[in-house]
Amino acid sequence: MLRSIIVTLFMLLGLVQAESQVSAPDNAQVSYFSFQPLLFGITLLAPNTAVTGYVTYERPIALNRSLILRPGFVFGTDQVTDTSGSIIMKTRTTTHEFGVALGERFYKERRTDGFYLQPLVQLDYLHENASQGDFSVHSYGFVHKGLGYIGYCSHSRTIPWFIDIGTGYQIRYSSEKDNSANAYSYQIFGLAFDLNVGIGL
Predict the structure, then answer these.
(1) Residue ranges per domain, the chain?
(2) Number of other CB atoms surrounding residue 189 within 10 Å
(3) CATH class, range 2-200
(4) What is the C-alpha separation between 166 and 173, in angstroms, rounded?
(5) pTM of the model
């Protein structure tokens, strides 16, 4: 786990340092922030669902390339009711997750507008409390993701916007302790999917 976190941090720092040495050309689009109101609104209004929010910062660094920085958070409580058996079981999970993602957009045209491809790496810290009846588990750890996106961005009007979809791989490292004082650690590997719709601020 520690090795993966260190590698990710060095990748983030290296990319930031490399891109910071390149200034955006005069005819590139200006930097801007965008918010994802669709995701935030759905998770805010949906019952028994943790609220999720992301802010994306895009900084043009060349005629058809831009740097992406995306901090985000997940905060709230999920409740799932299992009625498949003879006994109704309710699982309640409180989640606190925050992290940051760094990527680069490669636009098809010679400007930071239109269709693009975007590799991205993300590192989140995750803390959860789950309970089912008298049993409870406290867990914490890190989620490391690497994804590739295809999307479209428009700066042609006053308010910029973008939409993209991505897939990749994720690794979760967690340590858990239940209310019986049993402690253990584990790793979860799996596919990751993401859909984003952002509106410029």
Answers:
(1) 2-200
(2) 8
(3) mainly beta
(4) 22
(5) 0.76
